[in-house]
Design goal:
mainly alpha; transmembrane; transmembrane helix; 160 residues; 3-stranded antiparallel β-sheet
Length: 160
């Protein structure tokens, strides 16, 4: 048969702990230090502490989101500037394509012109390639900008 009693020793010197006047308090007979036995908390106290911690976590999350708003605004502004640059490149690539097309329509290169007969189609291909690549880049930038704007809207809605 096991005993329900637990021998308590002092964590500082290893001496025997004796019960003090207050319940849950013990004093070391060797070094005299007092120890408090943690008897646990009741469920109501634990529930109150849990709700307090949840409130603190919510406040920290709101603060973090509030701090994130200016960062997202700067990112959106940068992406908008990049998109404006992409629009200029798109226009320029269409102009290059059109110039190549006009050269092809106006100047007719005979077969004996050598490699010059491929000049107009090459200009058109360069314009078309730059246009396609820039369009792809603009789509990616626009998606990133939209995601950040959506995130900003969600944060503002949550913060009220």
């Amino acid at each position: 048969m096991t005993s329900d009693w637990i021998a308590l020793t002092c964590p500082h010197c290893g001496g025997k702990l004796e019960a003090a006047a207050q319940r849950g308090h013990f004093a070391c007979s060797h070094c005299g230090r007092e120890q408090i036995l943690n008897q646990g908390e009741n469920l109501e106290e634990m529930a109150a502490r849990l709700s307090q911690m949840q409130a603190q976590i919510g406040a920290l999350q709101r603060q973090q989101e509030a701090n994130l708003l200016p960062v997202l605004a700067v990112e959106v502004e940068g992406l908008s500037r990049q998109l404006q640059g992409q629009n200029r490149v798109l226009f320029s690539s269409l102009a290059v394509f059109f110039i190549g097309f006009m050269i092809r329509q106006i100047l007719i290169f005979p077969p004996e012109a050598g490699l010059w007969r491929f000049f107009a189609p090459a200009v058109m291909w360069v314009g078309a390639g730059v246009f396609l690549y820039t369009t792809y880049s603009a789509i990616r930038l626009n998606r990133a900008r939209s995601q950040r704007l959506r995130r900003m809207t969600e944060i503002r809605r949550r913060l009220g």
